[in-house]
Write a structure and sequence with these properties.
By secondary structure, the protein is mainly alpha-helical. The protein is 59% helix and 0% strand. The longest helix has 33 residues. The N terminus and C terminus are likely disordered. It comes from Lophium mytilinum.
């Protein structure tokens, strides 16, 4: 039996886990505390069968990376920083392959791990980025159907059509409602994820207002709503970057741990009565 420096056997106490979350993840006799689990997976710790969480890598940072890499340029574009514009069309590649593809892959990984909340969250936003990119792709003709002048020479014809703006606003409104549901879920997780989700809720709400004001011909008001939407999107992306940095530093066992603002103690989990099997 191995002994410590004073000759006594080492103690492995699950109530006092070591400070390194990855070391705890690997140790067979120690489990992640609920706070560290929620920081690492962005999900409450729930019992699952098997040892998939010890077998496969954590998919959460990949999906968070995809969100940050798609949302950041989009937010900067719609705010018009350094002369940017075009409703973020210049970053359509990042919407497909960063926001869309990486978040879908992360969502599938969370499903395999048995983490319901991030599985649904990453899948929903991955689907949004793919849908948004497809809408901006001229060859798919989403907005071209609203213009009689749409052609290869005029690929943007239809984007300024009032019917297209009014119709697309409903999709953005649905995303705002979905983000609000996700935001309520963050009250059980951490402050950084709250910043992301509440920021996205306001971002999508203001984007809805942007397109509906455009449909009514209120270009001035629509421009202000678009800038405000970009600002809230940028705040949300900052929260995503912080979460990503915290998870990457934990993954490489960096000596400094970034806090994410654990909220599990503020809103404790619902007590579930477990009935023994007969």
């Amino acid at each position: 039996m191995p002994t410590s420096s004073n000759g006594t056997p080492p103690i492995h106490d699950e109530k006092m886990p070591p400070s390194d979350p990855l070391a705890m993840h690997r140790a067979p006799s120690v489990t992640l505390s609920p706070e560290l689990f929620e920081k690492y997976y962005l999900s409450p710790q729930t019992p699952v069968h098997g040892s998939l969480r010890k077998t496969f890598a954590n998919p959460t940072p990949l999906a968070v990376l995809g969100l940050a890499m798609a949302l950041t340029p989009f937010s900067c574009d719609v705010m018009g920083w350094r002369g940017a514009g075009g409703n973020g069309a210049a970053s359509i590649g990042s919407y497909y392959f960063m926001g869309g593809m990486l978040m879908i892959i992360g969502s599938i990984g969370e499903w395999i791990m048995g983490n319901t909340y991030p599985f649904v969250l990453f899948g929903a936003y991955g689907g949004f980025w793919l849908s948004f990119a497809a809408t901006l792709t001229p060859s798919l003709g989403a907005y071209g159907q609203y213009s009689t002048n749409y052609s290869v020479e005029h690929p943007s014809a239809g984007l300024d059509d009032s019917a297209f703006a009014a119709s697309f606003g409903f999709f953005l409104l649905a995303m705002a409602v979905l983000s609000l549901i996700f935001a309520l879920g963050t009250l059980r997780l951490n402050i950084c994820l709250m910043v992301v989700e509440w920021g996205l809720t306001l971002c999508f709400t203001l984007l809805t207002a942007t397109f509906w004001h455009l449909a009514q011909g209120n270009a001035g008001v629509a421009g202000k709503c678009l800038t405000a939407a970009g600002a809230f999107g940028f705040v949300a992306s900052a929260g995503a970057w912080w979460i990503l940095a915290a998870q990457i530093l934990a993954a490489v066992e960096f000596p400094i741990s970034l806090p994410v603002g654990d909220m599990s103690g503020v809103f404790p989990a619902k007590k579930v009565k477990v009935e023994s099997a007969v």
